[in-house]
DNA sequence: AGCGAAATCGCAGTCTCTGCACGATTTCGT
DNA sequence: ACGAAATCGTGCAGAGACTGCGATTTCGCT
């Protein structure tokens, strides 16, 4: 189903509002920007903004839900023999090009988030969502429940990698904005996840062996 | 300094407001309870409630800041030779009696938090604060920076124990409300932290040995 | 062209939170 | 003990986010 014109228009409106909002947030600050301003800049009614984004904060995290869904689907449908963390690494590698393409936007978003306490806080719900997704996948590997302590610890440690990954992008961009060495960035991302793999693997093994 | 009359009165007012608010939240729901209602029940002006608690959510997490401060102080002032996780375990053991005494209140609070999505989300800031505190302490043990991946993973895994600890209290209370076997609860809490110790220790060692 | 559904919008209202100013109380220095 | 200064509780006014409801417009399809 190729998405009717109605759907496309809706998507486009949503995307426009989010884009305009992010730009205003970046220039004026999150708190200092009102819904009314965003509506005007996006050429819609204030009521429409609220219809698309129940909370002002959602304007910033517009696509996080989809990303989490994608991660969940990828981990859930991993092929037999591929561990949860392997799948996570592969998912990251598969998505690096797409993230590259959106780098300016992602950097702006990060800047906006960092600038506001409540916003940074709000974003943690997605971190936790990701952590739960990882926990579910790891639980399947280990044959336990997502509520088991060792599964939780493993998931928490693994999810920590995702944060570092985001920071890595910024650092890279600052250090080697000119070079644009995509492959080394890719390698570093992979190395990161591999370290998580080692850490978690050793931790779980140590608990199991007692 | 034995805290002047002014200070005591202030503390008492603050405590009264928080207590009354928690009760109303538990009976009517968080969203359904207005600041005005809380003010009336606590016999203060609505403006006063906002003066003490900048955000409505703070009414629920009234003491979390102090607890985090206490944890930070305990970890910071641990004696030489006591690792960060040792200190965490000891801190927990030292505080178990105090938590026992407040069990009904803590259970009510947990119930209220679980009942509201935004509230549950809001609470994560304290989880993260604790995680950062642990990260700082672990970084000192390991001689690294709190931003290092391995330190973060270790801290994230360790902080996961704190969540499980909270759930443990509820489960215990349901299973053995009659027995009130405090010592076995204590043992289980200790065992929990010890497993974290094993997990994190093995993980860090594995990363170091490569 | 026209009909039904869906998107957009306007309006009114609720609620949280803030800045400011004023009176009352407490504290402190002498 | 007494007056000055700090602090607290409070009332008021207002900004801004968000919601429910109903009207209006737009669109897809026949």
Give the radius of gyration of chain A.
19 Å
Amino-to-carboxy terminus distance of chain A:
54 Å
Oligomer kind: homodimer
Share of helical residues of chain A: over 70%
Please write the string of helix (H) and strand (E) elements of chain A: HHHHHHHHH
What proportion strand of chain A?
A: under 5%
Global structural class of chain A: mainly alpha
The pair of chains with the biggest contact is:
A-B, 33 and 33 residues
Silhouette of chain A? elongated
pLDDT averaged residue by residue of chain A: 91
Number of helices of chain A: 9
- Runs of chain A with pLDDT <50, length 5+? none
**Total number of strands of chain A:** 0
Largest beta sheet of chain A, briefly? Answer: none
Summary tags:
homodimer, 210 residues, mainly alpha, 9 helices, 0% strand, DNA-binding
Kindly describe this structure.
The structure is a homodimer of 210-residue chains. In chain A, 78% of the residues lie in helices and 0% in strands. Chain A has helices at 5-28, 35-42, 46-52, 64-76, 84-101, 103-115, 117-142, 149-175, 182-208. The longest helix of chain A has 27 residues, at 149-175. The radius of gyration of chain A is 19 Å and the shape is elongated. The model of chain A has no long low-confidence stretch (mean pLDDT 91). Chains A and B meet through helix 7, helix 8 and helix 9 of A and helix 7, helix 8 and helix 9 of B. The first copy, chain A, binds a DNA duplex (30 and 30 nucleotides) through helix 1 and helix 3.
């Amino acid at each position: 189903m190729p998405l009717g014109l109605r759907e496309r228009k809706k998507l486009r409106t949503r995307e426009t509002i989010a884009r305009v909002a992010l730009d205003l947030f970046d220039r004026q600050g999150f708190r200092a920007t009102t819904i009314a301003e965003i509506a005007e800049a996006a050429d819609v009614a204030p009521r429409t903004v609220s219809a698309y984004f129940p909370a002002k904060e959602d304007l910033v995290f517009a696509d996080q839900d989809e990303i989490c869904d994608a991660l969940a689907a990828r981990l859930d449908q991993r092929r037999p023999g591929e561990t949860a963390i392997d799948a996570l690494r592969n998912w990251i590698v598969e998505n690096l090009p797409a993230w590259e393409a959106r780098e300016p936007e992602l950097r702006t978003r990060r800047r906006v988030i960092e600038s506001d306490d409540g916003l940074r806080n709000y974003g943690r719900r997605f971190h936790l969502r990701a952590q739960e997704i990882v926990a579910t996948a790891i639980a399947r590997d280990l044959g336990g429940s997502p509520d088991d302590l060792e599964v939780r610890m493993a998931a928490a440690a693994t999810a920590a990698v995702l944060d570092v990954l985001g920071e890595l992008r910024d650092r890279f961009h600052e250090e080697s904005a000119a070079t644009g060495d995509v492959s080394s960035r890719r390698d570093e991302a992979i190395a990161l996840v591999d370290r998580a793999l080692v850490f978690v693997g050793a931790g779980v093994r140590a608990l199991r062996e007692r």
